[in-house]
Model the fold of this input.
Amino acid sequence: MTSLSHISKKNLTLFRQQTDPLADAVISAYFPERRQELQQVIDGFTSNSAELITSQETLLVLYNDVRNKSEHLSPEVLKAGQQFFNQHASDIMLLLGMLSLPYCYAAANGAEVLIHSKRILEEPEKRLLETAEFVFNVCSRNAFKPKGKALTDILKVRLMHAAARWYAKNTMEWNNETLGEPVNQEDMAGTNLAFSLIVTRGLKKLGKGISSDEAFSYINYWNQIGWLLGVEKSLLPENNKSAYVLERNIRERQFKPSESGRMLTQSLLRYFEVATKESPLQGQSTTMVSYLLGERVSDMLGLKSSVDDTMLFQPYKYFFKFQNALSLRNDSYAAALKQFKAVQKGT
Done:
């Protein structure tokens, strides 16, 4: 048995039938009749120091799981990951929408859950802003401190995933045999890589000089987040090599052309066309996304850039490298958050 056999393609098949039992138990206890009651309880959970006011046993078990795990996180790992995010925050937030999300949409089976959310299709900006807010909250220097929001957001995401599973299995003709469980362990591991490994690759495409140690500091930070989100520890890479192998195996198993993936991507791109008006990326968002994703994944999502568009985009690649070589832009968590709040006000 090799050290990476646990993330072999064969074993990943088993993970498609595994979810998050603790979160699923909460949804089973509240859905469908008591959904509003659950929402009211969660709405009152606004910071890490807030007490969860409930007598519902399954919700208390989930709450304690998140809180107890957080007490075993490495301070050194958290500090290194937060420093990395602070250094590259604006670029990471750009990559979130233009790389991480469309990358996830290329996973055809997983996209089947997302396509049935009208909000994602009709209001992609809200999905993007909610995801961005989550990333800010879990990556800030105060994320796990009493006034931070990492634990509250992580609990809410686990419940959101469990609710998506409930809706998929109760309102759709979901085929577990062919698709796996909705929002299963393989899907969650792939998403975690989209927010970590794939982001570090995107930063390099933006001309950032990132060492392998720096890259893994961010991957390992998201390992901590993934663990709290209910991802099995065996699906959290221990080093750069295992991250590479896990991403490759999931991609080769799950990435393929799908109507759902194309629709989700087109919805996102329509938003980008509006959002990038009067910016350097005006009219270039599709080409930018294609550049970041690479040709094979872009083709799966139906992204076609004309020869003229590709030629027009060439100077951007050199500008990224030139900008970083001369340190023309100072990046930080504060600068990125200020920009994010400005976007929030405009929506």
